[in-house]
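Protocol step 4 of 6.
Sequence for Transmembrane 4 L6 family member 5 isoform X2 (Panthera pardus) entered exactly as in the expression construct, tag removed. Do not edit the line below.
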Amino acid sequence: MCTGKCARCVGLTLIPLSLLCILANALLLVPGGKTTWTDGHLSLQVWLMAGFIGGGLMVLCPGIAAVRAGGKGCCGAGCCGNRCRMLRSVFSSAFGTLGAIYCLSVSGVGLRTGPKCLINGQWDYHFKDVPGSYLRNRTLWDACEEPPRVVYWNVTLFSLLVFVSCLELGAAC
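Step 5 output, structure tokens:
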């Protein structure tokens, strides 16, 4: 397979992955599908928008550049062929790799820290200092009074972001 076709294949893989990250981050902003919890009750990792900025936009640009690198050249047929587009694709690949790393690290911290929720009248990161991992102890998940089922929501979406950003890293590198 020539490098142009390979670049196009990589780009066509990165574009849906980046859109999935944007969607997952948008869903993290509305726990349980309701916007009533956005007034200071979302975790810092949600507000850092790792899925929107890092795994989304920063990977979408290299994905589009990779698709275009498989085209007919920057000046039409002739002069430099695909070299200009391929060079731009290589540089944007580094940009996409940084975005995927950003998404992976922030989402990993979001999983480790847990959501900000209401327990006994206090909004805080209640799972941050739990001995062991709250991820293995599902009985703790129901301790959050508000937003309802926020732990399930965050664990599912942050896990999705971690998985997709790992796929993006593999494709971008």
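Step 6, annotate. Helices lie at 3-28, 44-47, 50-69, 83-113, 150-172.
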